[in-house]
């Protein structure tokens, strides 16, 4: 029973921290007009899918963990499995879309050309349609959702080795893991090599020391951001994929409940880390959060004072820094 309680406590923490983090990102986006950029629309899509997982799906597994058994029947199992599966894949495909966006803005767009919000909304719609097409087959017979791990959460059936079920697993890994991963690695590698080449050009042309240092700083910040994004992607989803493939092609009897449950629990940590990586690490969002928190502190100190409403009202000047990616020679701030 201790294992069930530990899982329940962990999921409670994921729900609370994930809820707060993603709500902050969404509220900042809605409140500050300067944050409503094409790039941040993708961040919003990520936060909404993570928030849906935290509010609609994960609480079912959390309550079942404290009860020591699944509480919602087979219908609830299919519902829970699909919601978490769909929202998780939305995150994966949005990761890929963000990497493509950065690649296009940095390497393809000139400084006077803008990547419009309308274009990004079409990309988001495509992400949802593609994900929906790929994740609904288990609901109508091409695989199914079953209880896994400690029998307090539901997942795709990896244990049935019939051709019908195995074919869907193969399709799922190709379309929903390896394809997004390939896109992310390819785009970030091209961005890195491009920025590294431009940095070396600045150095070789003996431009000013300030410009050389700026180029080095930009390359360093970009490299760190790309490594963080890719590392968390792999950390969250590789264990899940490894155990699933082991269950599919090996002897599933070797997979104990803790081994089966752990990767799915790790994957749920994306709810917590996504708003940190894509929101809090953004200079725009940080400034917006600081401004909002500053207003709240003043409101607490001066409750009832009419003048408090106007304190810190520099909203029109918020968030001037580039979102997510540092400036580069080929991308203007308006594009991002």
From TrEMBL:
G-protein coupled receptors family 1 profile domain mapped to chain residues: 21-278
Q: Mind telling me which PROSITE patterns this protein's record contains?
A: G_PROTEIN_RECEP_F1_2 (PS50262)
Superkingdom per UniProt: Eukaryota
The name under which this protein is listed is: G-protein coupled receptors family 1 profile domain-containing protein
Keywords attached to this Swiss-Prot or TrEMBL record, sorted alphabetically, are: Disulfide bond, G-protein coupled receptor, Glycoprotein, Membrane, Receptor, Transducer, Transmembrane, Transmembrane helix
Membrane-spanning residues: 6-30, 51-71, 83-105, 117-140, 165-189, 224-249, 261-281
InterPro entries per the record? Answer: GPCR_opsins, GPCR_Rhodpsn, GPCR_Rhodpsn_7TM, Peropsin
* Intracellular or extracellular location(s): Membrane
Biological process, per Gene Ontology: visual perception
- Tell me which Pfam families the record gives: 7tm_1
Instruction: Give the record's membrane topology.
Output: Multi-pass membrane protein
Q: Which organism is it from?
A: Patiria miniata
**Entry keyword annotation includes Disulfide bond:** yes
